Amino acid sequence: MANPHVISEAEELTRFGLSMIVNEPARLGDWLSELGGQLGDVAMLDEPKKEEGEEGEDGMVERLLDIIVRVMPRHIPVTSILLEHYDGYSMRTKMAIKAKIIEPILAIGQVSTELLAVLGSAPTRADELVAWIVRLLVSDAHPSRALRQTILDREARNGAGSAAISWMVVTAVDRHQIEAAMIDALGALNRLDQLPDMIRSMLCWLKRDLDISADDVLFMAINGTTRPNAKRMGKVIDQFILLPDIFDRSIIQDALTRAYRTNNPSILLMRVTMQVMRAYPEMLDVCLDLVGALILQPVWDTPQFEAGFVRFVKMCQPRSLKLLHRLGKAHKHALLEANPDLKAALRSGTRFS
Asked: Where is each Symplekin C-terminal domain found (predicted)?
């Protein structure tokens, strides 16, 4: 069994070396020689020392990663070293890290309490690698209860970031559960200013691994929200609509159309429709057609739908007043009696096309 003191020193040296990749790459050559001497048989280093100038920066990074992955299965805490400076690495280094740690991570497995402790304490700047490791751990096995709890606890401490992707993976086994987990993750946001980065990270993974698009995400958020988290999700969707680089008008229109065509309006549907109208007044005709078709369906028992419909008509008059004529006579009469301002608008003879 290796000397714990030697391992501790090796971890410190390795941590320092990974910071050097970011901050002082020119010093990596000398540092690697020192690390090799400290690790000794722990890393099973049998490579001959290369002459000065023979090894470039990429080669030194490769040697460093080789040392870490050799140590990792038996001395799991060194994994934390990879996470500590991950956000500062080049894309090439990040790809090399992922390629090299596949085997040791799978060998360690999700039953390791040491690995779960490392993932749970990883800084938020390492969210991308945390999410990647979690996906790797559950690639050929159902997530353990301990892994699920580790990710949920990390979310509770750090607030939702791209690690919400990990949450979705460990809580979901099919598309329906991914939808529910995504809504929970968005609804749990501590700060809405985290949303743009979070949604960009989510969409990157969702599209690549599950073919879930921005249109799908917006539709899920509109259609899958229930009363307990409606207020929070309403604010989240408001922010979606204000991110035209992610949710442009065509994506918003497609998602909204899908939500209406379910003929089962969610608690947020009319609220989102009005928010879309504020952001894109030119979509009035689209929204009038969607609302007009929906009110002919048996939707009036849906909680808050009638109140939302009335607000929409008031907001978009005079052209929206024509929707009132699509209602049954008794329904129209009751609605106008409850809303004398709309009754007056109809009586005024306002023309609308």
From this structure: 172-335
